[in-house]
Amino acid sequence: MLGPVILAASRSDKMRRFVSAAPGxxxxxxxxxxxxxxxxxxxxxxxxxxxxxxxxxxxxxxxxTTVEQSYAARDAYLELIERLKELELGERAEMSVKLSMxxxxxxxxxxxxxxxxxxxxxxxxxxxTTVTLDAEDHTTLDSMFAIHEELRKxxxxxxxxxxxxxxxxxxxxxxxxxxxxxxxxxxxxxKEPASVALQDKAEIDxxxxxxxxxxxxGEGYPMIGSHDPRLIAVGQELARRAGRKLDEYEFxxxxxxxxxxxxxxxxxxHRMRVYTAYGTDWYGYFMRRLAEKPANLLFxxxxxxxxx
Length: 308
Hints:
Helix content is about 50%, strand content about 15%. It is built from 13 helices and eight strands. It has an eight-stranded parallel beta barrel, surrounded by seven helices. α6 (about 110-125) packs across α7, α8 packs parallel to α9 and α9 runs parallel beside α10 (about 230-240). The two termini are about 30 Å apart.
């Protein structure tokens, strides 16, 4: 059960310093992180778009401690949107945001996060794209859903994320599916207690399928965030049974993972979106990717033990 251990390490400053200094870290991080700046990520977006793939962009960084840092996060997304506008990539690239970056955990954090994210959502709408609010740990979700509901009053295309391992999620899915939301479903990548979340992988997979069914049969736009071939196949079958056309739902996978499968789904006519993260504060995001799949951890350990 290495996953919970790695998730705990994602909050450790000592582990952050160790991982950052390890000789093989840069090589492995590059597999999951598209670069540190807008200039790094733009060519990647252009390449993905040229291959028929769509993109959602995440400026990584979560644990902010000051209001000034929340403003910097807002401005980083506004800079990204300006670049996408210049390159006419708005229709191929949306954005994913974590409200913790926008000040959600600070004093008066709900109001601060809403004030910071609103101009980002508005700027995205101006270039023909949108924003999806990422789900974080369970204590933040009521605030996230309230901000999502508020933003949709003016920007109904704003999306949100739900996590299959949480007991609350089936109820959330029914509510969101009924009101026509754009909803990304993922398994969940935070260390959550047994009081609020399923702990067994098989049970999480079953919950994922039940929630997919709710979304596919609802009035919204489902976004299936998974690399699992079985869940992808089930998603396709549920979409078929619900009478959905190929442009009425999409699949999403992480940058650097199962690239051939991403290309295959796009070639078959599916909407395939690549979750592409960039930025200097990559540690927490990177550690959760390791926790999700043991093969990623083994790849990383071999690399950090190799000098040069």
